[in-house]
Amino acid sequence: MRLFSALVLALAMAAPAAAETVLIRDGRVVTNTSAGTIENGDVLIVDGRIRAVGADIAAPRGARIVEAQGRYVTPGAFAAMSEIGLSEISGSGAPNDANVDGALVGAAADAGRAFNPGVTAVAVTRMEGVTRAAIAPDTNSLFGGRGALVSLGGAADSVFRQNAFMVVELGETGANRSGSSRAALWPVFEAALRDAREYPARYRSGQGGAVLNEIDAGALQPFARGQGLFLVHVESAADIRRLIRFKRANPGLRFAIHGGAEAWQVAEDLARAGIPVILDPLSNLPDRFERLSARVDNAVLLHRAGVQIAIAPMPGTVDAHQARLVLQLAGNAVANGLPWDAAFAAVSRTPADIFGVGAQLGRLDRNYLGDVVIWDGDPLEVMSAPTAVFIEGVEQPLVSRQTRLRDRYHPRNRSAD
Fold first, then answer.
1. Mean pLDDT for all residues in the chain
2. Residue 204: pLDDT above 60?
3. Phi, psi angle pair for 259, to nearest 5°
4. Do residues 280 and 312 make contact, with C-beta atoms less than 8 angstroms apart?
C-alpha cells in the first residue's frame, strides 16, 4: 500500500499541470513597481500571466479564489547566481556537473546543457519561494563558461534562456589562471576577445588563436561582440577600477560584477559606469587579500550611490548551490541598513533586469509571468515560509524528498509500515 501511494504521488508530481485562472485576494501585494505595496490587494492570473493587480478585482467565471488573508504576496524570488541543478552534492565527484576540469573547454562550458530539473535541491529551493535562478559552471580557465536562466518548476524544459551570460575571472582567481599575475591577466583577456571577434576566419586560415582554441573562440564570439553579458568575478577596488576603465574603452561590451567585496570604495564610479553588482551581504571577512576592505554594509553604501545591486552567495563558497539562501541574505542586508524594498528587489526584480528578462519577471504587473508567492510572514524573515508558490500560474507542490522522508518516518505514520 505504501509503495502504491508513493507511486501515485510521484506520477502526480511528474504530470504537467495546466495553468488556471486564479484570483489571489486580500493580500499585502509587493508589486516591485511604482505602485509599491498594495494593502488588501488582489492579483489575477490568467493563462500563466498576470492579468491585473489592484484592489477589489472581480473574479472571472470559473476562477479559483485563493484567500491571502492579509499575508505578503510577492513575485517569486530570483537567485542571481547559483549552481543549483548542476550537482546533487557539491563536494562529490561523479554527479557534480558544476565543476569542469581539463584544458579542452572554458568559455564553451554550457550550464544550460547540464541542468537537471530533477536534482533534489530544486524542489527544496522552490518551497522557499525561489522560482527562477541564474546558473553557471566553474572551469579551470579564465572564462568560467556560459550561464543559463532556469525555472525551478521541475519541468523538462526548465531552461528558458540558454547562453544568458559569460562568466569571467578578472581578480585573484583569474590572475592565478593566467600566469599567476594580473600583469598577464589583462593581456590574456584582451587577446581572447580578439580571437573571438576574428572567429572563424583566423582558425580556418590555419593561424589559430593567440590564446583560445576554436571551441572556446566560437562560444565567446557573441559576447566579445557585445551581444551578451559578461559576469565578472572581481573583489578588490583596484580590480574594479580596471574593469571600469576597460568598460569606458569598450562601451559596446556589457558587464556585471559578481563579488565586489570592496565595491563600496568605488560606488560612485560604478553608478556612473552603469555596472551592476551581485554581492553577498555577509561577505565581511578579509579571508584573502582582494577582500581586505570587505564590510557588512557594502550593499547599503552601493544602494545609496545608485548602483544596481542583486544578492547571491559569495563566489566559490559551499553555499553556491544553495539558491534558497538568497532571501535570508537579503534579510541580513536589511538588518545592516538596506531598505526592505531595495533588499527584496535585489532578490527578485533586479536579477531579472540584470539578465535581460525584466520585462517578463520580477514584478507583479499586467502581462508579467505568473510567478507569485504567498507567505505566512515577512519573506525576509528566516522563520517565514511560503503557503503557496505559483510558477507561470501553476501552483507548485510544497513537497520535497526531505518532507516525504519526514512524513514517512514521523511517529504518527509508523503504523503504515
1. 91
2. yes
3. 120, -100
4. yes
Consecutive H or E run containing 279? strand 277-279
Q: What is the pLDDT of residue 321?
A: 60
**In this structure, which amino acid lies at residue 339?**
P
**Alpha-carbon torsion (237, 325, 142, 227), positive or negative:** negative
Please report the DSSP string for 174-222 in residue order: HHHTTTSSHHHHHHHHHHHHHHHHTTTHHHHTT---SS--HHHHHHHHH
103: pLDDT confidence band, cut at 50, 70 and 90? low
**Rounded-to-integer distance, Cα 60 and Cα 67, Å:** 15
- Residue 336 DSSP label: T
C-alpha angle 260-263-269 in degrees, rounded to nearest 5: 130
Bond into 200 cis (ω within 30) = yes
The vertex-90 CA angle with 84 and 96, nearest 5°, equals 85
Contacts of 410 by beta carbon, 8 Å cutoff, 6+ apart: none
pLDDT of residue 37: 98
User: Phi and psi of 349, rounded to 5°?
Assistant: -70, -45
Q: How far is CA 96 from CA 35, 65, 86, 138, 274, in A?
A: 43, 42, 6, 11, 35
Residues 346 and 310 sit within 8 Å (Cβ to Cβ): yes
Q: Is the pLDDT of residue 72 over 80?
A: yes
Q: Which three cell numbers stand for residue 78?
A: 530570483
- How far apart are the C-alpha atoms of 168 and 160, rounded to whole Å? 22
Contacts of residues 88-92 at CB distance under 8 Å and 24 or more positions apart, as own/partner, are 88/119, 88/120, 88/121, 90/318, 90/320, 90/321, 91/318
